[in-house]
Structure of Fe2OG dioxygenase domain-containing protein:
Amino acid sequence: MPQEDPLRQTQMDAFVTRTKRPIEVVEASKKKQRIKEEEEVKEEIATSSETQTYSKHWTYPIDILNPSFRIEDGLSSQEGSNIRKHGDLDLLYFSPFLKKDYAQQLYLHLLNNMPWYRVTYTVGARTIRTPRWTTVFGLDDTAEFEPPEEDGTVAGRGVRPKKGGKLPAKTYKNDPRPLPLLLSQLKKLVEEKTGAEYNFCLLNLYLDGKDSISYHSDDEGFLGENPTIASMSLGSTRTFLFKQKEKDDGVAYAGNKNKNKKGKGVGKGPVEKFQLNSGDLIVMRSTTQRNWLHSIPKTTTTVGPRINITFRKAMNVKGTNNYYHFNVHAALKDSGENEAHRYSEGNMVKWKGVVDEE
Ligand SMILES: O=C(O)CCC(=O)C(=O)O
Ligand SMILES: [Fe+2]
């Protein structure tokens, strides 16, 4: 999980404040059309409610609707291309991984059915508001979820160490959430096509061009030496940038921080740029995290929502504690955003909000 830089965010926010241009009138009508389509899909789902099933778990803030489509049918026949550059950038890029119409169904399903959080956390004296919506499911390699009761209920069940025995109290600061059906099916597909195993799904929702992820690398110790991270894009196209970490005597600095003294933006080294489309999967492998930073920059172009799912393998308890803290729980209690939100006509609203009786 990267640490955001509030100063940089403020600077970037200033960028996106702009006056209304005619092109924005066109964009506004596109947005209206997009929202109309989203509403139609929701209505379709509502009318077929008898056949709906849900993934349920006591750790979920809501029951999570299972899809009515089969995700395995959505696999594109496109093979991944190996991209090896500059010696240590090692990528496998499926463009696309999912067929266009399946990617769209999956995007809308996740947008409308996931519990989303806007996390605010502190680093020393600084309070940092994550510039995107997030949610996470999974458990590190040392433990497993206890099986559900025979009657199918899972309420009250916890996790246990894989090696047997009892989990010491307070091992996990927050209760880990098992993958809902859709994500476990998707994980299986991604594992088969990428030849790696994953135990976590981290989801990011970038509502518009102001949402972003600043330059960071996913190189925490709990991911192991050379982690494979598979990253799926759904919804609007966004730019994905890679930039080399600054090196000292040929060795990249450890950690997430870009140590370039000039700090912000693009450093001296090479930058690799991708336009990630809906249904694409980009896999970061071997020495990539150790030597490269990646980001989704803010954009002043009008863009609709984009969802990103990263599949990762956390080796130990630290990974589980880190992921739930930074993607679900570390929200300011008085901001109201520590509660699960859902997407509704371009806005985020609380799942458990009060609604008027019709
Ligand atoms: O949204 C993306 O494509 C990148 C997300 C990412 O880098 C992360 O979650 O660590
Ligand atoms: Fe990342």
In short: Residues 1-20, 254-266 have pLDDT under 50 and may be disordered. The two ends are 42 Å apart (CA to CA). Residues 202, 204, 213, 218, 231, 240, 294, 296, 308, 310 surround 2-oxoglutaric acid (ligand 1) (CB under 6 Å).
